[in-house]
Amino acid sequence: MAEPPPGPRVILDEPTPMQAPAAPRLDFGWEQAVVPVAPPRPARWSGFSRAAAGAVVLGLGLAALDAANFTADQFARGAVQGWLTFGVVLGGFGLIASAGWAEAKGLLSVRAVDQARAAFARNDLAAVQAEAVRWAGGVAEAASLLPALRDARSTDEIRALLEAGPLPVLQARATALGRTAAVQAFSVTAISPSPALDALVFAWRGVRLVRQVAVLHGLRPGLAGTVALLRRTLADAATVAATDIAVDAAARALLSNKLLEQFAGEAAAGAVAARRMLRLARVAAEACRIVPPR
Question: Which H/E stretch holds residue 261?
Fold first, then answer.
């Protein structure tokens, strides 16, 4: 047999008639055995959260030590001065502690909505029933359903009870709150001389609307709870804002007369602000529902 000529050889992927097909690769999972897949790490605090918590601990801790030393010095001067100082310190730190507890309760009430939705998602009857009874106990529109919720035999039955009873009523009241906020936003935007003032008023009224809708659904959000609710509505509100900007620009571009452009432009801006308020009320109501959407 003649030897192949010297030079580079071309190796074809397809087997030739004189060449046997390549055997399939045997996979024994050695890579996974040698380098196993690491389980997902639990959620941890971010660097900013730890820094903020450390600053709070240092501030309150040092303030408490200073107050204790000052109170001891006042007792050394006299019993009256010492007890007065102790009362002032106790009252001040008591108010701070009560404010912190109220913030924690408000944030936990918002987290309870997530727990209820997760229980509905995994069809956990015991958890759904407990969350529904707890929620109905804090909402006047749902108090009459407590016996039926306790006797429910499935998560679908609990969902049907809530969707046929209190949830539509709460949605209608949230829409009414949105209309009131929309009228106020339209009025302020139409007469305001500054776009910066428009944005400030809209932000203040929007935060107040979210808190009103949350209270309507039995939540008592403080600052932390309100921030958590606003984070849920941020993506949807950003999409609506982009659409509204395009509508506002189109409305202004259709007008050529300067006077008409001024009046119609302000009216368009007010209409856009009113539409955003209505949308914000609906999104906030959806964020506060313990029943997830279908």
Answer: helix 258-288
Which among 133, 164, 195 is the end of a domain? 164
Question: 199 and 283, same structural domain?
Answer: yes
29: tokens are 């999972």
How far apart are the C-alpha atoms of 60 and 54, rounded to whole Å? 10
**Domain enclosing residue 236, as ranges:** 166-288
Q: Which residue has the tokens 């932000």?
A: 203
Asked whether residue 151 falls in the same domain as residue 197, the answer is no
Residues 230 and 287: beta-carbon distance below 8 Å: no
Cβ contact 135:165 at 8 Å: no
What percentage of the chain has pLDDT greater than the value 70?
A: 70
Structural domain contains residue 206: yes
What does the alpha-carbon distance between residue 261 and residue 267 come to, in Å, rounded to a whole number?
Answer: 10
Asked if residue 123 lies in contact with residue 97, where contact means CB atoms within 8 angstroms, the answer is no
Using CA atoms, how far apart are residues 50 and 113, in angstroms rounded to an integer?
Answer: 25
Give the separation between CA 253 and CA 109, rounded to whole angstroms: 46
The strand ranges marked E within 114-254 are none
Specify the pLDDT at position 277.
Answer: 83
Give the other-Cβ count within 10 Å of 169's Cβ.
14
The answer to whether the predicted template modeling score (pTM) of the entire model surpasses 0.70 is: no
- Among 113, 144, 164, the domain boundary falls at 164
